Amino acid sequence: EVLIVVFSSFWVGLLEPIPEEKTSRVSYDGYMLLRTNLTSELLENLEKEYDVEIWKSRSGFDTTSDLLVAPFHANDVINQLNSSGARIDVAISDLGKAIEEEHSFIEGDLEKLTVRKSHGMSWERYHRIKDIYGYMNYLAGYKSDICEVINIGKSSEGRKILVLKVSSKKGARTKPGIWIDAGIHAREWISPASVTYAMRELVENYEDHPELIQNFDWYFLPVVNPDGYEFTFSENRLWRKTRSKKSSIRCRGADPNRNFGYEWGGLGTSNEPCSEIYRGEKAFSEPETAAMAKFIEDISSTLKVYLTFHSYGQYILIPWGYRNNKRPEDYNEMKELADLMADAIKKEGGSKFTVGNSADLLYPAAGGSDDWAKSIGIPYSFTIELRDTGKHGFILPAKYIKTSGREVFSALKAVSAHLTA
Ligand code: ARG
Ligand code: ZN
């Protein structure tokens, strides 16, 4: 009898449908996201003493920090915060539950109605690389007069790194170029989602705004860090870095946004491989940043604008980011355009984006892609931190994708309008 039971449950197991891979294997059940105004030193103590991950730390502009706290330390951490008189708000009471709910689109099963057979993107949930790349290839086929997919290199784990070039005269390098990338940091899912939405609007609704493609060449790199991105689906929702592996080193990956070759190794970076802000062994040690830099360098004389999308916080950040109190000579020109983008976003989706210098507004962090892009002579370079301001943080529910995507597109229109005026 025992044998039969074992045998039959084995077969039942085989018949069960393979669940769709959306939940990561590292469990965040019971983890809390707390927002507090605790001072920075006390915060560092908490980080050392307990299993606390700082999602966002207080900075020049912002007086609160967001802390992810493991369930077995929740009481201790809350007691410590209370005894030091700090304010505490619970932003997320159970991160595991929030992650489970992240994909669901509240307006029901619209996805089935809108997805075409030819590609899998819906912008009603977050999609894996195969859907994103499938969509880029779909555009290159269906709109082959203006779209082309360019394979710019390979990630550490061998994934392709794909750029979609949108241009009314394919192959020619005559128009001023606008570069847009997303997904440098793996867990910032709203960034590839919003950028692919904007890409769709630009290409598929061409007739609504033909001047955008008539006046500029557009380059989209929606997932700079495909290994990290896939890892956030399969293993750990909160992975940030690349997934490169050095045999002599225990921890994998470097922070791609500390790995670019301008002022590499400076403030706000770490030489400790296990750190979330590990800069890598040297500038461009990561194949992803190296491939991107090589491609951008080749077209850099045509590029007018460099935009890199991250989350969260709702900021438009202007170089330099590698140290405080240091602004490029043409800072005010950049600020003028950043303000126009912020106005456009506000009008479109209602969210308020704060504009300012990267280091002064947030914190100094060297080796960022924005500083590097500015350093090679691209006139306008910005890091845009998308929604939200901390209610959901990285775990922004999918119902916000379309609004955020429209906000991004409205910012692109503002850029185009300003530069053609
Ligand atoms: N949140 C981004 C990061 O930490 C901000 C980067 C801003 N740019 C800079 N060069 N510091 O990577
Ligand atoms: Zn980021």
Automatic annotation (TrEMBL):
It holds the Pfam family Peptidase_M14. One of its GO terms (cellular component) is extracellular space. The active site is at E385. GO terms for biological process: proteolysis. Residues 125-419 form the Peptidase M14 domain. One of its GO terms (molecular function) is metallocarboxypeptidase activity. Its cofactor is Zn(2+). Residues 1-17 form the signal peptide. Keywords: Carboxypeptidase, Disulfide bond, Hydrolase, Metal-binding, Metalloprotease, Protease, Signal, Zinc. PANTHER family: FI01817P-RELATED, PROTEASE FAMILY M14 CARBOXYPEPTIDASE A,B. Belongs to the peptidase M14 family. This is Peptidase M14 domain-containing protein. It comes from Artemia franciscana.
